[in-house]
């Protein structure tokens, strides 16, 4: 079901002494067999079932069911309950969370999820903020007009300095890293995207280069970029105490 591998920082020993929280990354296909889809459907809340029914196309409906069911399953393992009992809600910016008033919220579990095409990405941590993003490298999306609209002036400049055959890779590196960061902040796309810069050149480490008027500063955050499957680009961002990234093999 899941297509994953172990992930660790580029220089794991550099962070080991400071590591407090383990951040776990999982990615999986959203197109499993009929039996798996039915199993995930039984985990959903009444509101999630109603939302699933609003999708016009069956493939979109089932992909929603699978990604929500798998999220519930991953959280239930850590909360000691059944997937259907996981009390999900959202903050004021739409970021999913464990319901604050729930008896299960005492563990301070934080998580983020993203999906693109037929793949979903999940990031889960205890006690540290976390954000993740995954994107299929669709040529029609990675265009210069989108970069000028959503990236900072420095990022646009760095992107233009790349060789043309590296432009798409740089674009999607930048996009996923920016989305992962604003998700970690909990603001989603409401946070101004020109108030921080990220690295984007292929082959260079994923980093926050500048953070302007954001909670904390760039030293508070750890960023990671990776490719979970051919044609996909992904990123995860966590607070500094969440340094170790592990992929699931289930």
What is Rg? 18 Å
Mean pLDDT: 84
Major pleated sheet: 4 strands, mixed
Question: What is the share of helical residues?
Answer: 25-40%
CATH class annotation: Alpha Beta
- Ranges where pLDDT stays below 50 over 5 or more residues in a row are 1-20
Number of strands: 11
Q: Examine the coordinates and then state which fold CATH places here, giving the name of the CATH topology.
A: Ribosomal Protein L22, Chain A
Q: How many domains in all? A: 1
Oligomer: single chain
> Count of helical segments?
7
Shape label: globular
The largest beta-sheet arranges its strands as: 4-5-1-11
Full CATH superfamily name: 4'-phosphopantetheinyl transferase domain
SSE blueprint:
Elements: H1 12-16, E1 22-29, H2 34-41, H3 46-53, H4 58-79, E2 88-90, E3 96-98, E4 109-116, E5 119-126, E6 130-136, H5 144-150, H6 153-160, H7 167-185, E7 196-198, E8 208-211, E9 221-226, E10 232-239, E11 244-247
Parallel strand pairs: 1-11
Antiparallel strand pairs: 1-5, 2-3, 4-5, 6-10, 7-8, 9-10
Helix pairs in contact: 2-4, 3-4
Summarize the structure in words.
The strands form 4 sheets. The chain has a 4-stranded mixed β-sheet. A 3-stranded antiparallel β-sheet has the order 6-10-9, covered by helices on one side. The longest helix has 22 residues, at 58-79. It has a single domain (12-247), classed as Ribosomal Protein L22, Chain A, CATH 3.90.470. The protein is of the alpha+beta class. The chain contains 7 helices and 11 strands. α2 (34-41) packs across α4. The termini are close together.
């Amino acid at each position: 079901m899941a297509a994953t591998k172990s992930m660790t920082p580029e220089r794991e020993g550099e962070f080991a002494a400071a590591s407090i929280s383990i951040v776990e990354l999982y990615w999986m296909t959203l197109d499993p067999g009929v039996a798996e889809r039915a199993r995930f459907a039984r985990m959903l809340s009444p509101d999630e079932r109603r939302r699933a029914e609003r999708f016009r196309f069956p493939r979109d409906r089932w992909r929603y069911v699978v990604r929500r069911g798998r999220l519930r399953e991953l959280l239930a393992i850590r909360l000691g309950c059944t997937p259907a009992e996981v009390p999900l809600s959202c903050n004021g910016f739409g970021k999913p969370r464990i319901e604050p008033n729930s008896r299960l919220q005492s563990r301070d579990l934080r998580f983020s999820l993203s999906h693109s095409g037929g793949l979903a990405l999940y990031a889960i941590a205890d006690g540290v903020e976390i954000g993740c993003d995954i994107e299929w490298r669709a040529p029609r999306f990675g265009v210069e007009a989108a970069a000028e609209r959503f990236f900072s002036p420095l990022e646009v400049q760095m992107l233009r300095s790349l060789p043309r055959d590296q432009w798409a890779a740089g674009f999607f590196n930048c996009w996923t890293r920016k989305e992962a960061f604003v998700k970690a902040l909990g603001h989603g796309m409401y946070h101004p995207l020109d108030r921080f810069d990220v690295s984007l050149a292929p082959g260079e480490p994923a980093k926050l280069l500048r953070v302007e008027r954001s909670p904390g500063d760039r030293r508070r955050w750890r960023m990671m970029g990776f490719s979970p499957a051919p044609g996909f680009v992904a990123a995860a961002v966590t607070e500094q105490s969440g340094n170790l990234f592990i992929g699931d093999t289930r």
